Amino acid sequence: MHKIVADENMPALTLFAEHGEVTTVAGRKMCREQVLGADTLLVRSITQVNKDLLEGTQVRFVGSATIGTDHVDLAWLKQEGISFAHAPGCNAVAVAEYVLQAVVTWLLEQGRTPYSTTMAVIGHGNVGSRVAQLCSALGLQVKIVEPLNQRSGYDYCSLSEVLQADIISCHVPLTKKGEHATFHLFDDLKLQQLVPEQLLINTSRGAVVDNHALKQLLQQGKGPTAWLDVWEGEPTVDAELLALVRMGTPHIAGYTVEGKWRGTWMLYQAWQAFYQLGQPEQAMPQLAPKRVWDEDIDSLEDLLRLLKTHYTMDEDYQRLQKSLGAYDRAQAFDNLRRDYGQRFELAGIVCRGKVSLQWQPLLSLLGVVCAG
User: Fold this and answer.
1) Is 124 a catalytic residue?
2) Is 310 an annotated catalytic residue?
3) Residues near 44 by Cβ (< 8 Å), separated by ≥ 6?
4) Known catalytic membership, residue 234
């Protein structure tokens, strides 16, 4: 019987319960005493997995239901012979839909058309490539910057070219060492080169953007319009910065039901393979209810209404603002994520209204069925 310790906010842990005893704990406060005796540890990005947590334990498998690994000491795990798995791409659809809604909202606010707008996507992994795909289908002129792992067949641009784009969206892991370190990738010098007519979106890691420098510029009426889902210093959010950004949400861009479930599912498959528990199923169950959209889609406004059928980020902004009035702001931030409601991805919606040819390729990429 396997003994499994898991973050209490991970869904679908019943998958593991079929093969062992699952104990759930608070991820932010997880400590060594809680994992003694366990052979499996399942975490999210808020748990630091390192020697301090695992030395002297029986843990042989660590799974992180996240795309990033900056919270895990991979070198130490390898040294100790502890297997590690994570979930790259598990929330790519969710984050891309979040960014798409941000872009469409901003275009309408600025009175711009997609075809007259340039966008730079920084990072061309699972999330960045999905964002680039959707925004290209929207009609934007998309440029890609990949500072880490460039792939053949793509036309990449330099970071200096990024600073000229109308929209900049960050999708890189947080790294502090090496030639292409992403810590403060947007430092004071780069931020000073941006203007309020440009939109900077960050859904990757908070410290990719120097939050202090950004706040100082925004206080002076300078720098870019900022749309932040991640914050330097999480779970503590700078209230002054939140008041200055166009939109701020509590690190939930990837928090769809499907994205969370997919993360656990990917770890379950890796865990079954590691312990040779048989061949896991390759298909996830259908999670979203049946949804029908009866209105026509002929304009950006129509498209935004459709996007908001599954998610309205203004509500998350208001919740985050309200949370800063709590006595313990950090705990309030974690509570927002812990108690997050059901949000489904767009795939599976049946659109029975008339859809303009202009939007059909984008809706197809989103998994929306055009039946009108």
Assistant:
1) no
2) no
3) 7, 9, 10, 27, 64, 65, 66
4) yes
DSSP 140-166: -EEEEE-SS---TT--B--HHHHTTSS
Catalytic residue among 44, 124, 171, 205: 205
Long-range contacts of the stretch 185-190 (C-beta < 8 A, 24+): 185/122, 185/147, 185/159, 185/209, 186/210, 186/214, 187/213, 188/213, 188/216, 188/217, 190/159, 190/163
* Catalytic residue chosen out of the listed positions 232, 234, 258, 345: 234
Q: For residue 10, give every residue at least 6 positions away whose Cβ sits within 8 Å of its Cβ, in sequence order, or none.
A: 24, 42, 44, 65, 260, 263, 264
204: Cβ–Cβ under 8 A, 6 or more apart, which residues? Answer: 68, 123, 127, 170, 171, 172, 173, 174, 182, 230
Q: Does residue 255 contact residue 229 with C-beta atoms inside 8 Å?
A: no
Nearest to 362 by CA among 134, 69, 113, 127: 134
pLDDT tens sequence across 4-27: 999 999 999 998 998 899 999 999
Name the catalytic one among 130, 251, 262, 337. Answer: 251
CA distance 50 to 27: 14
In the predicted model, is pLDDT for residue 213 greater than 70?
A: yes
CA distance 148 to 4: 34
pLDDT-based confidence at residue 235 (cuts at 50, 70, 90): very high
How far apart are alpha carbons 126 and 118 in whole angstroms? 21
Q: What residues contact residue 153 under an 8 Å CB cut-off, 6+ apart?
A: none
pTM across the whole model = 0.91
Side-chain half-sphere exposure of 132, counting CA atoms within 13 A: 20
Burial class (CB in 10 A: 0-12, 13-18, 19+), 13: middle
Give the count of beta carbons closer than 10 Å to the beta carbon of residue 69: 17
Q: DSSP of 8-36, one letter per residue?
A: TT-S-THHHHTTEEEEEE-STT--HHHHT
